[in-house]
Every structure is written in structure tokens, then in C-alpha cells.
Amino acid sequence: LFAGPVDFLKGVVAMDGLPPADRPEVCFAGRSNVGKSTLINALTGRKALARASNTPGRTQEVNYFTLGEAAYLVDLPGYGYAEAPVAVVQKWQALLKQYLQGRATLRRAFVLIDTRHGIKAVDEEILSLLDGAAVTFQAVMTKADKVKAADRDKVLSQVRTALAKHPAAYPEIVLTSAEKGDGIATLRAIVAGIA
Ligand code: GDP
Predict the structure, then answer these.
(1) Tens digit of pLDDT for each residue in 96-133?
(2) Angle of helix 121-133 relative to helix 86-102, nearest 10 degrees?
(3) Cβ–Cβ contacts within 10 Å for residue 193, how many?
(4) Ligand 1 atom nearest 146 alpha carbon
(5) What is the pTM of this model?
(6) Residue 30 near ligand 1, beta carbon < 6 Å
(7) With a 6 A CB cut-off, is 31 part of the ligand 1 pocket?
(8) Domains defined along the chain, listed by start
(9) What is the pLDDT of residue 133?
(10) Does the beta carbon of 54 sit less than 6 angstroms from any atom of ligand 1?
């Protein structure tokens, strides 16, 4: 799936802008600064692929990338950005809800969690949305290189406990470091296995 070309297709701001639901897709969600762009770039083996989603004005867009012709990779806007105006947050939540509930070809959501911080209240909101939409989601820990092994285990057990309360959670947690390359091949294989 990742052997072929990976290209930016379009940024979507409303449901009617979504590309035709003609192939499987996976989406990536996470708090701003969780390392989502870096992880997507590592996954796809491209340096500047997801950077577009970080440029101002693009941040509230759902960004579609093509994995060859076989699948879509969807980069959801980062959430929990403290300075985002309420109206922007509400608009984004409405689009997210519509997207999660209405996208029949969505195979799985990957929710990125900073290994230093674990699951926060703002993450819980997304996890509940995913439960409500019955979209299977999988936690992906980012920046694992920044945390000592002992602390990592503590965070992982916090995450496991939190996930147990969510019916849509996939139990296996993926630990990654885009910096060191840890977990990237694993995540690629998971995506290739479901999309
Ligand atoms: P986004 O807002 O979620 O797209 O986050 P970015 O991908 O822009 O990453 C935010 C910051 O975290 C940047 O300074 C990255 O260099 C850094 N970062 C991302 N992934 C890793 C990682 O695996 N390890 C380390 N040490 N830093 C990372």
C-alpha cells in the first residue's frame, strides 16, 4: 500500500467536498502538536507530505491523500488548540461528527497520543465521538523516544485503562517514534491490513 505513490488529493471543509467513497480509507486524529504530521510523513516515507495541513488556513481542513489507487489516508485537523476561536471549534466538531458517522468506507481511526502526556480530557471527547459513530479506533503513542521506559509503562497502563471504557477501541496500542523510526513499519502493516 505504501510502495506506490502517495499524493495530496484535496483539503475538504464540508461533507459535500469529500471524494467519492470508492475505496477504503483510514484517518489520523490527534491533539495539535502530538506529532501527527511527522508520523504521517514517516509512514509515507515523504518529507513534506503532511506539512500542508499545518499551514495556517489549512488547519481546519480534512486532508485527503491517495495511497496509490487502492486507499485514502485522511489527515484530520489537530484538535485542542487553545487559541482556536469557539466558532471554529464548533464548526470542526460538526464536520468531524458528520464525517465519522457518514463515511461508510472509513475502516479505522488512528488516534495519536503523546507518550509524555497520555489520554487527556480533550482526547476523551474524540474517543466518545468515535464510540457514538461506531468507528473502530486504535491508539498510537507518539514521541516514545522522549520518555524513559519506566514512565512509558505507566502511561501505557493509563491509556489501556482509559481505552477499556470505550466500546469502539481496538485493544492493541502502537508505540511509535517518528524520530527513531520505532513502530512505523508496524503501523504501515496495520494500515495495509485493513485498507
Ligand atoms: P502536529 O501538530 O501533530 O502535526 O505535530 P508535528 O508533527 O508538527 O510535531 C510537533 C513537534 O513534535 C515537532 O517539533 C516535531 O519535530 C516533534 N516530534 C514529532 N514526532 C516526534 C518524535 O517521534 N520524537 C520526537 N522527539 N519529536 C517528535
Answers:
(1) 999 999 999 999 999 999 999 999 999 999 999 999 99
(2) 30
(3) 10
(4) 26
(5) 0.94
(6) yes
(7) no
(8) 6-194 (3.40.50.300)
(9) 96
(10) yes
